[in-house]
Amino acid sequence: MAMPTPVPLLPDITRRDWTAELLNALPDDGNRYEVIDGELLVTPAPSLVHQRTVGELHLAVKPYADMHALDCVMSPAAVTFSLRREVQPDLFVLPTLDGRFVRRFTDVGRLALAVEVISPSSARADRYKKRMLYQSEGVPEYWIVDPEARFVERWRQGDEEPEVLVATLAWMPHEVAEPLEIKLSELFRRVHGE
Question: Cβ(128)–Cβ(153) under 8 Å?
C-alpha cells in the first residue's frame, strides 16, 4: 500500500502577527513571502517579462553602483527592517562599508534605492504597502516599474504623488556624482524583445 504524499500546510494569511522568524520558517513553495507590520504578503512566481525587466534594470544600475561604492542586488534577498518588516525588493542598492560589500542587510540597515516591478498580483502591495514601508524606513528613492504600460513611478521621501517617467530615468544617489540615466524606451524594447 502506497503512503499518501503529505500535503504542505498553507500559511494562515489572515493572522496579523507574522514575524520575520515565522516567515523564514515557511516551506519553499515557489511563492515569495514578505511581512509588513505583521501582515503576510504572498506573491506567486514572477512572469518572464517581470524577470527580464529586473535583469535589464540590474544591467543598467550595477555598473553605476560599482563605480560609486554601492552594492546592487537582485531578489530573492531579504531586507529585514525589523521583526515585523521583511521584504524582498526585486532590485535594491545598499551602501557598502569602506567600499566592501556587506554580508547581511543588518550590517548597514538601510537602502539607497528600492525597485519593484509590478505585476497584476503585486500592484496594490507595491503601490501602497511597500511604498509606505520604504518611505517610513527612510529609503531615499523607490521605483515602481510597469513593463506593460512602459513607465516608472519614482517616489522620494515625503512624496504624496509619484513622479511618472516615460522617457528617461535619472538617479543620483550622491550629490557629487554624475547621474545614472536610463532611457526607458530602450529598456522596455529590450524587455519585450522588440
Answer: no
